[in-house]
Amino acid sequence: MTDDEKEALWLKNKPRLIKESKEYQEALQAFKMSSGADWLLFAIPVAAGIVFINSVPIHPEWLLWLCTVGVAVVIFAICVFVKSLTISGRLPTEIEKDIKERFVKQLDESTFNHK
């Protein structure tokens, strides 16, 4: 079986295999908004934007608004990064990679056994 055939089979079976993986589903749940602290991911960037827009004298006004949005986006990215560091366990992308490796290994073994 060629690598292209294996990849095609993986793409066909990926949704089912991921749905069946309890570890993957638990990892996804860890990223959902489940506590009050998670809502700070939105509150902190908004508050930072308000403080920035009220304290930094930038003219023209459109540039001030543009900079404020930039500050809020950067703060949001930092908050999401900090949340990802606090989550215990593996990332969904790592689990998906392991699921794919197991799937390809099973394909190789079944191909080898049929010869």
Give an overview in words.
This protein is mostly helical and 115 residues long. Helix content is 83%, strand content 0%. Helix 1 packs across helix 5 and helix 3 packs antiparallel against helix 4.
Could you name the key traits of this structure?
single chain; mainly alpha; 5 helices; elongated
Give helix % range. over 70%
Gyration radius from CA atoms, angstroms: 22 Å
Order of helices and strands: HHHHH
Q: What is the number of strand segments?
A: 0
Alpha-carbon distance between the two ends? 11 Å
Number of helices: 5
Percent of residues in β-strands? under 5%
Low-confidence blocks of residues: none
The pLDDT mean sits at 88
Largest sheet: none
Please state the overall shape, judged from the principal axes of the Cα atoms.
elongated
Structural category? mainly alpha
Layout of helices and strands, plus pairs?
Blueprint (H helix, E strand, L loop, with lengths): L2 H18 L1 H9 L5 H20 L5 H26 L5 H23 L1
Helix pairs in contact: 1-5, 3-4
Q: What is the gist of this entry?
A:
The protein has 115 residues and is mainly alpha-helical. The chain has helices at residues 3-20, 22-30, 36-55, 61-86, 92-114. The termini are close together.
